[in-house]
Amino acid sequence: NEYKSYLSSSMEYEDRLQKLQENTGNIRNLCILAHVDHGKTTIADSLIASNGIISQRLAGKLRYLDNLAQEKTRGITMKSSAITLHHSYRKEDYFINLIDSPGHVDFNGEVSTAVRLCDGALLVVDVVEGVCPQTVTVLQQAWSECIKPCLVLNKCDRLITEMKLTPEEAYTHLQRVLEQINSKVGELHSSTVMEKENLVYSEARAEELDEEGDEQYYNWGSGLDLEANDDSHLYFSPERGNVVFASAQDGWAFRIENFAALYQRKMGIRAGVLQKTLWGDYYLNMKAKQISKGAYEKGKKPLFVQFVLDSIWNVYRAVLLNRNNDKIDAIVSSLKLKIAPRDARSTDYRVHLFAVCSAWLPLASAVLDMCCEQMPSPLDLSPEKISNLLCSGVTSIEQLPKETQDLAEAFRKCSGNDNDPLIVYVSKMFSVHPTSISTNKHRPLTDAEIEKRRDAARLRNQQKLTVNFNPQPIGTLRCIDVAMAYLLEMLS
User: Tens of pLDDT along 250-307?
Assistant: First the structure.
């Protein structure tokens, strides 16, 4: 009976996944982009562990998506690898097609291929090292391919264990790193706007010169179309929900809304208000019983420090830095966490810390929730993305044949009906040896072919024996006798 119930449940799950594949609106295609050693592969392992493929304890150690022997030996990702994950968010099922790309500058081709195939990207940044050269490069690639990035500020534990920062200093440091990243986004947007403005101006200027002769004047307000050039939605902002604070090594991550929901239950403050005020210059005014602005001016703790960072710092102090079992028990009971006795008794405090943090703020839930909420589905492809897929940067979609232009509508529909065209996109081409192609590989010989080859070998052996035993002609023997006589004469 147990086997039958297990079989029926597995069949139901397979049917559920089959239906989910047909629901294009709940599919997310994304890649992980970062500088080398910023924690991409550890985050990928944590996401894979959420589907039960590997153990959560092996996240970051197993390097599940690193398939090459050199990748295992050198400890870096060299080839892009893909996997499909299942995630439930707000009572809906989602398919996450995840690509882990290299972070080393020598493998930029792999990154370009991964970005071209995706609709969104996870930009991982080490909060201690900040913006690195490869971070800027992958951000430019994501921008050029018109995909939506979300930010993961990783290795926040280093602010506590290595840099020894206080919560207030860590908050200032996080703000600085976020500003650096957003400044790069602003530069990309400004350069794009200026290119478009120069193109429009040059075309308009040519028409004006044709109409008005040599009269010259400049339209200084040509770049002031604020509605068209609004870039507020492009930046990373915690209150918008497109930023995750994480420590992949310790297995925790969170968004602002996680703590907003927590303190809504504890303090009765609306989650929507906390979502807007937890990040920024806001503080809790206990006298007025309200949230007020001007924390720095009045010397108050910002809400992010008071409600978020102080709680995380207390956990690290109790478990790792200044071991205190009583405080640990109080934290576990107040948060209603379930910790395995084996983890609680472990002599390695990092194991206990991982168990507490991953049960309190699971990394996979925070990251995958953000992907489902923030990143577009294949049905939401932008016209720029469709144009990039259908034609190169040299030509425009209007210059292509009508049959190719009609594929743009098929891209938007993403339908799997029999009457719709099947579109295959080649993202990368590389040369292989002809013997590596399946049609050219050696296949087992049949009995008839083996007998034929055996007969041919026997015939060749008989011909060789005939040639070897053929007697020498007389002229050849005479030459040998003359040569021997000459040699004897010389020796004497």
Answer: 999 999 999 999 888 888 888 889 999 999 899 988 887 788 888 888 888 999 999 9
Taken in order 127, 132, 135, 136, the sign of the CA dihedral is: positive
Give the predicted TM-score (pTM) of the model: 0.79
- State the distance between the two ends of the chain, measured CA to CA, in whole angstroms: 107
| Distance separating alpha carbons of residues 289 and 2, to the nearest angstrom | 56
Burial 147-172 (b: 16+ CB within 10 A, else e): bbbbbbbbbbbbbbeeeebebeebbe
β-sheet bridge partners, residue 149: 121
- How far apart are the C-alpha atoms of 383 and 376, rounded to whole Å? 13
pLDDT digits (tens, 9 = 90+) for 146-176: 899 999 999 999 999 999 999 999 999 999 9
- Asked if 173 and 309 touch (Cβ cutoff 8 Å), the reply is no
Tell me the three-class secondary structure of the chain, residue by residue. CHHHHHHHHHHHHHHHHHHHHHCHHHEEEEEEEECCCCCHHHHHHHHHHCCCCCCHHHCCCCCCCCCCHHHHHHCCCCCCEEEEEEEEECCEEEEEEEEECCCCHHHHHHHHHHHHHCCEEEEEEECCCCCCHHHHHHHHHHHHCCCEEEEEEECCCHHHHCCCCCHHHHHHHHHHHHHHHHHHHHHHHHHHHHHHHHHHHHHHHHHHHHHHCCCCCCCCCCCCCCCCCCCHHHCCCHHHCCEEEEECCCCEEECHHHHHHHHHHHHCCCHHHHHHHCCCCEEEECCCCEEEECCCCCCCCCHHHHHHHHHHHHHHHHHHHCCCHHHHHHHHHHHCCCCCHHHHCCCCHHHHHHHHHHHHCEHHHHHHHHHHHHCCCHHHCCHHHHHHHHCCCCCCHHHCCHHHHCHHHHHHHCCCCCCCCCCCCCCCCCCCCHHHCHHHCCCCCCHHHHHHHHHHHHHHHHHHHHHHCCCCCHHHHHHHHHHHHHHHHHHC
